[in-house]
Amino acid sequence: MSIEQGSRPSLHTTSTAELKAMLNDSVEIIDEIRAELDAREAQTQELEKMDTLMVEARPKLQEIRGFFALVLDELRTRRGPPK
Predict the structure, then answer these.
(1) What is the DSSP string of 8-66?
(2) pTM of the model
(3) Residue 30 clears pLDDT 60, i.e. is over it
(4) CA–CA dist 81, 83 (Å, integer)
(5) Fewest CB within a 10 Å sphere: which of 1, 13, 21, 43?
(6) What is the Cα–Cα distance from 13 to 8, expressed in whole angstroms?
(7) Count of C-beta atoms within a 10 Å radius of residue 14
């Protein structure tokens, strides 16, 4: 993506003060863009970590379910047949 020459004044006819102001504005915009990109990258990394945790948690949930099924079976066995 480029800035068209017709959308801004010619650099040859722009005063030094205006050029410095344009440069300062550009630096501020670039800093804002970098900050936004950094924030998005950090968010993406957080989401990737959460995805990893979810993938790792799935087998553990099955183990937990199995454990509770065993506990319930044990409690039912100790309790005896229903009356």
Answers:
(1) S--GGGS-HHHHHHHHHHHHHHHHHHHHHHHHHHHHHHHHHHHHHHHHHHHHHHHHHHH
(2) 0.51
(3) yes
(4) 6
(5) 1
(6) 11
(7) 14
The rounded distance, in Å, linking the Cα atoms of 29 and 21 is: 12
As a whole number, mean pLDDT of residues 56-65 equals: 82
Is 82 within 8 Å of 75 (Cβ atoms)? no
Q: Which residue has the tokens 């550009």?
A: 26
pLDDT greater than 60 at residue 74: yes
Length of the chain: 83
In the numeric block, which tokens belong to residue 47? Answer: 């989401």
Q: Which residues contact 64 (CB under 8 A, 6 or more apart)?
A: none
Q: Does residue 15 have a pLDDT over 50?
A: yes
